[in-house]
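ingest -> validate -> predict -> emit
validate: passed (alphabet ok, no gaps, 597 aa)
predict: started
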Amino acid sequence: MLRTHNAQSLNLSNKGQRVTVAGWVDRRRDHGGLIFIDLRDRSGLLQIVFNPETNKEAHELASTLRSEFCIQAEGVVSPRPEGTVNEKLPTGEIELLVDKLVILNTSETPPFYINEESDVDENLRLKYRYLDMRRPTLKNNLIFRHKVVHMMRTFLDREDFLEVETPILTKSTPEGARDYLVPSRLHPGTFYALPQSPQQMKQLLMVGGLERYYQVAKCFRDEDTRADRQPEFTQLDIEMSFVEPEDVMDMTERMLLEIMDTLRPDAKYPRKFPRINYFEAMSKYGSDKPDLRFGMEIKDISDIVAGCDFAVLRDTVANGGKVMGIVLPGCAKYSRAEQQELVELTKTYGSKGMLPLAYTDEAPSIDELTVESVKSVATKYLTLDQLKAIAKRMEVNPGDLVALIADKEDKTLDVLGRLRQEMGLRLGLADPNEFCFAFIVDFPLFKWDEEGKRWDAVHHLFTAPFDEDKGLITMEDAGKARSKSYDIVLNGFEIGGGSIRIHEADLQKQVLKVMGYPEDIAQDRFGHLIEAFNYGAPPHGGIAMGIDRVVMLLCGADSIREVIAFPKNQSAQDMLFNAPDVVEKQQLKDLHIHLDN
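emit:
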């Protein structure tokens, strides 16, 4: 080894010991006779000192050091002189008096500061990712990620799971996002697909009798990127035989609590994750992944405004729509321009507009409310009784702003759900040190695709219905069927999802039929799985959790790109390797591919 100790492993107990350290020059300070270097390795910083009276040759060599030079230093550990202790550093009580220095490699001037967490263009950081990793935030995020994954593996090993790898090159069975396709050289004109998840393979492992499987699996989806999405991502994939939904949820909960207790004991989180019905989540929060760190629940006031003189509200209700709203605490003071900004924001969510009702603090209580104390274009159309009824239904306090949306129920809930999430964060209602885990349960099995005029699976087409709802798997009644599915959500993000799977061939065929798969296509894409169900397939179910999202949330990062070593940028480009890129014509020829352009 080129070193005897890591920088941060040294302390006063090493006083007088001769040690060797190695790392990078973080900072250099020349105080005339003495040269001070902050040496950085993965563990942290250590001050090393060069004194010309101790070793003139080493001191002269130290004068040539610059930021990011890679060095090896040998010397004696010594307490820092009185008055120079740095209490901010774990190694702040000591320094290394160096008498031997080796420059392992020099460095050009980096394109951005390594020893400062200054804002740097993300594409530049991604291009020089190997330098970005030396900065504390990204380095610590990757260390934290390692600890999370290690704890997942350790927990599942104790729970008698087997880690099994599944293929990366597989068959394209489009059922969600676009597949990434890989052309076959040996079989011209055919393609492999990269797996969107190991869904079918983990079910086949259950048919194979392995009973408890997990995998830290690479998955690929050709879809637009965003802060919590990448073309390739990592999930913790889990499948279990002979289980019901509560068995899977309980196991997942215990694993996450163990991770939180060990890695985030400073945080606030529930000891028992609530189970929230899907329809309750949608009606209260307008989302199946609600942020539960704050209230701002959606309230339906359709009955209150059904007969009012405001045509937009009255006609919406008359045409079968809904008028719903949320309370924005303390926002009655918003100016007209600020209210209009909220109106425009809701339009980006697909609304036709938003009606604000500012319940000013001119009235000390709702009982003392007057029409004049409510500022809105709607007050001339709403009676005092209606304004009071709205305030009581929505639990308004003086100084609050009510945001109303009038539209079809699904659209109204969606818009208010997005507005709720945005305003909860803007108003500082979400404690960043609180982690509100919850399971969303009892999803519908199907949703109607109006554009395609067909039934789509809410989760995926292998999800089992409630036993008592199997008779509803028909074209006429499919919308009434419930599924044995469950998502785990955290602070406004879905971090995992799972279900009990279909394990009976006839039921799987019926689900595919209702979803509009012709028999020949169903056989081509899923025949291998259906056939396997004819050989004593056990009841089984599982869950998949997005490791990137979990780590992002637990370490407080703004994007999963901040917890992945080599991510793609927002345009799905790899700035370091310049991928995707053109390939040589011979490579295309070998694959029997001809490009038109």
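The CA atoms of residues 19 and 75 lie 6 Å apart.
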